[in-house]
Amino acid sequence: MVFTYEIRGDYIVYVGIDKYENEELIKCALPQDIWFHVDSESSAHVYLRLKDKDTLDTIPEDTLEDCCQLVKSRSIKGCKLHDVVIVYTPASNLKKTNGMDVGQVGFFNEKLRKYKKITKENVVVNRIEKTKKEKTLEEHKKDWTDYQAELKRKRAKEYEEKKKEIEDTRRSKEEQRLLSYSDVMVNENMTSNDQVEDEDDFM
Q1: Positive or negative, the Cα torsion across 69, 74, 75, 80?
Q2: Cβ neighbours around 36 below 10 Å, total
Q3: Residue pLDDT, tens place only, 8-21
Q4: Between vectors from CA 33 to CA 16 and to CA 130, what angle results, nearest 5°?
Q5: Pairwise CA distance, residues 203 & 195, whole Å
Q6: What is the pLDDT of residue 149?
Q7: What pLDDT sits at residue 160?
Q8: 182-197 b/e with 16+ CB inside 10 Å = b?
Q9: What is the largest CA-CA distance in the chain?
Q10: Can you give the chain as a three-state secondary structure string?
């Protein structure tokens, strides 16, 4: 089973039930999902599904706190400790190599790892646990596929709208330029006609 939770900031997080599902979640995580784990301890893999245009550095503080509290509570040893350090990084930074145990990961870029020290807040954990829902791994994978397709459609629509906006702006500027050019030509014709009339009067 895959557990999903609703946290502050109107975000969704998902967690595997054991290390075997953690292994599957590594494969189907979106590149922009953020992976959380208790540093130097065994724990569940918690993934935060970012909203479009979010980044590792723009996660709201209360959302980050909820993710860290959840992953601490899902660590057999970590949940008993007064405080722990949580490591988090984009899912695209997770690396699997031959010889690694099931659910074990490394990192492509150590500089993309961030850390947060927390102490347990039962009130926060209890609030999050009340939102728990269960899905099969197959359902989760389908949701992932549907989300990818919807995100692709959304970005394609935004691209077309931006393209149209640029074209409309270009066309508007061109029309203004032609109108300005037309005004100049009219003024020049008027000046030319006035000169002819002056010359006729002189004759």
Answers
A1: positive
A2: 25
A3: 999 999 998 888 88
A4: 50
A5: 13
A6: 72
A7: 87
A8: eeeeeeeeeeeeeeee
A9: 110
A10: CEEEEEECCCEEEEEECCHHHHHHHHHHCCCCCEEEEECCCCCCCEEEECCCCCCHHHCCHHHHHHHHHHHHHCCCCHHHCCEEEEEEEEHHHEECCCCCCCCCCEECCHHHCEEEEEECCHHHHHHHHCCCEEECHHHHHHHHHHHHHHHHHHHHHHHHHHHHHHHHHHHHHHHHHHHHHHHHHHHHHHHHHHHHHHHHHHC
pLDDT value of residue 202: 47
- For the chain, the structural domain boundaries read 2-135
For the chain, what is the radius of gyration of the CA atoms? 30
CA–CA dist 30, 14 (Å, integer): 12
The residue ranges of the chain whose pLDDT is under 70 are 148, 182-203
Structure token digits, residue 96? 């699997």
